[in-house]
């Protein structure tokens, strides 16, 4: 036992020493290169502005000049649809009563969103559960998409990295408006004019959802671009910052938007409470 403990402590010390050496080498490289000595083709202001508006880095798509986020959106949508098709054809028919790892992951995902729908919209859970599952899956994986660093060629012949689809204001507005239309449609179908009026009074809802989603995802993108912009900070740190912000925003924005949609949908489709008839109650009490 003593020998095992000594060997374990020795391995830990070696591991710690290796990491300290790596960190020291990276710090030495940073200070030797210097802060901001590399030549930049654009200022940090231009880099941040293009990260938001994509005025320079545009891509040709079937003869049209589009933002890189459009290509990202089509790519993520195609991957998710193809993955769903493969799961339905090859995996679902093999699901068992005692689930394996993959089946457990799928069931946990479905249960998470179905439980959210039942909690926030107890009267009508079917459609909103399916919608928040689809929207949540798209938000989560489209946010992680930027970690792969896929490249495309812009109209000027330069290589650009495809961003997260929802880091573009147009993609965020599309998601917010679509979620609002789902809530509005649910209110119209189940409660008629009363349901529509209850949703229309929250006219700022699509704007708030869109900009909350856009702002959350864009902040991580801009911080990562800012770190990458300076040569002195472009060793190891961008990978850590990018991974941390991306994972954090993927989880937070997925949870926030699906929760908001399920809550407002539940309010829109909530059945009208019937008025109790006091006379009938008194008559039944007398008969009793």
Architecture overview:
By secondary structure, the protein is mostly helical. The protein has one domain (54-271). It is built from 9 helices and 4 strands. The longest helix is centred in the last third of the chain and has 33 residues, at 237-269.
Class derived from helix and strand content: mainly alpha
Note the gap between the termini: 80 Å
Classify the beta-strand content into a percent band: under 5%
User: From the structure provided, what is the oligomeric state, counting identical versus distinct chains?
Assistant: single chain
Radius of gyration: 26 Å
Number of domains: 1
What about the largest sheet?
A: 2 strands, antiparallel
The percentage helix is over 70%
Helices and strands, in N-to-C order? Answer: HHEEHHHEEHHHH
| Gross morphology | globular
DSSP strand tally: 4
* Average residue pLDDT: 79
DSSP helical segment count = 9
Instruction: Identify the strand order in the major beta sheet.
Output: 1-2
Unreliable stretches (pLDDT < 50, length at least 5) are 34-39, 275-279
